[in-house]
Amino acid sequence: MSLTTAPPAPVTLPRGRSDLLVVGAGIVGLAHAVEAVRRGLSVTVIERDWRPVGASVRNFGHCCVTAQRGELLDLATRSRAGWLDAAARAGLWAPEAGALVVARSATELAVLEELRTERGADAVRLRTRDQVGDALGRSGEDRGDLAGGALLPADLRVDPRQAAPRLAAWLAQQPGATVVWGTNVTGVETGTVHTSRGPVHGDQVLLCVGHDLDRLYPAEAAAHGIERCRLSMARIEAPAGLRTDAAVLTATSMLRYDAFTATPSAPALRREVQGHSAALLDVVANVMFTRLPDGSVLVGDSHAYDVTEIPFQDEAVTALLLREAARVLGVAGVRVTERWQGVYASSPRGPLLVREVARGVRALSVTSGVGMTLSFGLAAATFEGRLRVTA
């Protein structure tokens, strides 16, 4: 699956003035542009690269709705509807396949049962050991380590390598919408975005540049404690028996997302995982995988945090993640076809940065690794004036 395109076409900046200028053609920026078009507004998206290559194409393609909590759950639920609408408009692959959470101990199963008690049996559908084994393609004699699981039907799947490029292509065909590629933003002021090709004018400006906010507004990025989170990711050939298009989550996923960590059994689960798989906690693992439309499987991930990411991948970390994924799949090993490093914005101070950096200029970064999940919900909330501005 290639992300390459034809040689870049000559770039012409739009004439006149747009209702909205969006800096950044990642999924958060594109979602806002799609929402602007839906509302009949003119919009110009400005992107420094020639195609989406950042966090929006390096992830699992998992819209992780049910595992959110509080405000993020509301945004994720709204985003789900936005994804389905955008998929219908732009012809995206977006199956309502849900997420399958695999439980391999009584403690893991207890977390799922407690979440079902809170959310209801429709939102969290418990699965037996055999049902989970069938979905993973594990034979009857190879299910001894499975305790059961749960299907979270509200979760969506998208193809992360195609969703943002196809949304951008669809946008470029809409009246009043322009996508400007290969154009670096050098500065922003009220009503104007200054670029390497000249100024672009608009009534409102939205900066959706993720962790690169520090390139334009370093003080605001530092005030929110924005760091770069570095992920180890891989693509593997699918085991022959894997049958589910659902995202597959594990115990380490339950230790990461707020809906799980708020359950009474979550502390016991952390102690249990620390006892048998401390190495996974050491690399802040979220062992999960998702299947792409071509049948290949995305596997990850680990998390390492710094203001500037290093370019080097630790093979031992990748090997650890792949071994654990193979255990869940019930296979001796997996064949890797690609490896890469994901990078996204993170902050210990909160999952969102929403800040007015000048009159009519808003910076918006998801600083919790759920940009794909929240994107369209954030866009709706932005236009409805419901987003709380970060102090």
Write a brief structural summary:
The protein is of the alpha+beta class and 391 residues long. It has helices at 27-38, 71-90, 106-119, 129-136, 163-172, 213-216, 218-223, 251-254, 258-261, 266-276, 278-282, 315-329, 371-384; strands at 17-23, 43-46, 62-63, 99-103, 125-127, 148-152, 156-157, 177-180, 185-189, 192-195, 198-207, 227-236, 247-249, 288-291, 297-300, 304-306, 336-346, 352-358, 361-366.
Content of β-strand? 25-35%
**Structural class of the helices, strands and pairings?**
alpha+beta
Counting DSSP E segments of at least 2 residues, the number of strands comes to 19
Q: What would you report as the Rg, rounded to the nearest angstrom?
A: 21 Å
Provide mean pLDDT, rounded. 94
Give the CA-based shape: elongated
What is the helical fraction, as a range of percent? 25-40%
**Count of discrete alpha- or pi-helical segments spanning 4 or more residues:** 13
Largest sheet: 9 strands, mixed
Intertermini distance:
42 Å
